[in-house]
Task: inverse folding
């Protein structure tokens, strides 16, 4: 097996941000912007006696995806939980603005966000919060310009807090079984509202509320893929070739209608199994335990139902 | 949750009415729904009609408030024209509940962010008036999704309170409190957040609110070269944070990425 082939068969969950980028893009096509040799590091972590990273946990650059020019940003979930800090956040902001301004000699036709984040980095919370807001604004500008912005979520840190909101701002979301999206993390809900509201130690419950299978079945994600870099690549290639709906009243009105319908349909549910039972899925209790083959078969037997955009 | 104590609720309503009277001597009409979402309209001292949206009474933003606010914003944009939109913010954090997360609260908050962006792109200047608390995702989806954010007395923005930061970072609270006094980068409150560029203007004298609002509406919000015809308001918050010294690196780092993309893209 060649190095690239083994890279693509590899687990997305287990891979580093750099390995994901290398395996996702066409072989050897990645060019990094503001790479680790530039030493753009957090100016804040030292006062907390925390180690810094030469890239502050974010990789940004350009490359080809199935021959299409793309800009890509990838968070390293194993460094500070992939959090948005002043530098890590600004790297993503800069990438999105460069795509928006079509500053590069060969401007991208799509942008990929490989989110793997617990949200804002609390040691630099204010800078992180602002970066999240700036990223959301820049994504809206890219959508206004008609560019696909694709979120890929399948890392250990998921896409929480501002990362969850950013994932939902993109024109499409690709998720795996291990991917989780949410605003408040289960620990935060448990701390604030009590263990009866959300038992964060109950891992099965956490996945039923926030996990990839729940998100694809409720229409909150566009593609469900196996935990393989190659599967994420195939989905990203397919989505990068689609023209996203215009960033216009009609599109957001349709989103409003779908989000209202989702609340009407599922608003009384307390657990995903209730949601799936109401959706007519046989043996909803079994959904989390289905093999990937069986779950993907269940998905393909249902009509396309993503209700987000 | 607030509103349980009737006298506190009355005080809150009186304070909001006083704020609206000061901002809109030309008149105002405002409704607050069960989720705390605000809708209405008003006229400035200079006679400019504006739409009102927002979140009131310190209510946290969940699915219901987000949908309600998004509906108000969308209806405003659908009516056409370029009537500005004022976003009144007195909230908390987002609703923390299993039900809201199961439904995909991130989708609902993102939708609200995007409706406000659309309003701006369609020529409706969006101005946030922060007159209470706002934290985390609720802060992002309301006050921080406007073109310009104004803080008036009562404004208490934060990302997360220090005890929660202490819990998550496993740092002793007293140490965090000491550090918060000398560095704005993670400390809750208006001063540190304004220093990072989150807040454009701070208005402190109610007698001058009406004139300040008309001045802000009259001023051209800087529009990026080349996109003037799209009416996009430039997001200059990182430059503001650099100028104010509360976020010294963000603008430069974004600029270095853009320069690299331009040279090697």
Result:
């Amino acid at each position: 097996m060649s190095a690239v082939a083994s890279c693509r068969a590899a687990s997305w969950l287990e891979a580093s941000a750099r390995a994901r980028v290398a395996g996702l893009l066409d072989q050897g096509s990645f060019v990094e912007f503001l790479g680790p040799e530039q030493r753009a590091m957090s100016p804040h972590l030292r006062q907390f006696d925390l180690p810094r990273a030469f890239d502050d946990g974010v990789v940004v650059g350009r490359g080809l995806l199935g021959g299409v020019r793309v800009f890509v940003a990838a968070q390293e979930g194993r460094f500070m939980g992939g959090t948005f800090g002043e530098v890590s956040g600004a790297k993503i902001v800069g990438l999105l603005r460069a795509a928006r301004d079509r500053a590069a000699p060969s401007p991208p036709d799509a942008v990929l966000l490989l989110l793997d984040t617990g949200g804002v980095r609390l040691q630099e919370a204010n800078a992180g919060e602002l970066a999240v807001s700036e990223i959301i604004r820049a994504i809206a500008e890219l959508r206004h310009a008609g560019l696909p912005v694709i979120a890929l979520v399948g890392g250990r840190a998921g896409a929480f807090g501002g990362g969850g909101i950013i994932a939902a701002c993109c024109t499409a979301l690709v998720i795996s079984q291990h991917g989780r999206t949410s605003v408040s993390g289960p620990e935060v809900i448990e701390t604030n509202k009590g263990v009866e509201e959300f038992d964060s130690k109950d891992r099965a419950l956490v996945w039923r509320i926030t996990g990839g299978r729940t998100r694809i079945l409720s229409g909150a994600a566009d593609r469900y893929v196996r935990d393989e870099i190659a599967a994420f690549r195939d989905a990203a290639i397919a989505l990068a070739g689609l023209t996203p709906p215009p960033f216009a009243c009609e599109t957001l009105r349709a989103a409003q209608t779908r989000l209202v319908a989702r609340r009407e349909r599922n608003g009384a549910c307390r657990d995903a199994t209730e949601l799936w039972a109401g959706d007519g899925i046989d043996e909803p209790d079994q959904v989390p335990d289905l093999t990937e083959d069986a779950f993907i078969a269940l998905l393909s037997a249902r009509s396309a139902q993503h209700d987000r955009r | 949750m607030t509103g349980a104590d009737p006298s506190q609720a009355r005080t809150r309503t009186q304070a909001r009415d006083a704020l609206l009277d000061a901002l809109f001597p030309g008149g105002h009409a405002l409704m607050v729904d069960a989720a705390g979402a605000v809708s209405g309209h008003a006229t400035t001292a200079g006679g400019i009609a504006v739409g009102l949206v927002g979140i009131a009474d310190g209510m946290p933003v969940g699915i219901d408030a987000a949908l309600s606010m998004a509906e108000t914003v969308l209806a405003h944009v659908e009516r056409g024209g370029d009537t500005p939109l004022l976003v009144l913010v007195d909230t908390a954090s987002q609703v923390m509940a299993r039900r809201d997360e199961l439904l995909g609260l991130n989708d609902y908050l993102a939708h609200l962010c995007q409706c406000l962006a659309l309003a701006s792109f369609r020529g409706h200047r969006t101005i946030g008036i922060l007159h209470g608390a706002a934290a985390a995702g609720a802060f992002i989806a309301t006050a921080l999704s406007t073109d310009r954010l104004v803080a008036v007395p009562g404004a208490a923005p934060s990302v997360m309170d220090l005890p929660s930061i202490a819990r998550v970072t496993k740092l002793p609270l007293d140490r965090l409190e000491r550090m918060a006094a000398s560095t704005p980068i993670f400390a809750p409150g208006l001063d540190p957040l304004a220093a990072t560029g989150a807040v454009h203007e701070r208005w402190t004298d109610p007698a001058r609110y009406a004139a300040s609002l008309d001045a802000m509406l009259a001023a051209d919000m800087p529009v990026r070269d080349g996109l003037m015809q799209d009416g996009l308001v430039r997001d200059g918050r990182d430059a503001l944070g650099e100028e104010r010294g509360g976020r010294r690196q963000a603008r430069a780092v974004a600029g270095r990425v853009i320069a690299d993309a331009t040279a090697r893209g």
Q: What stands out?
A: Residues 166 and 175 of chain B are 9 Å apart (CA to CA).
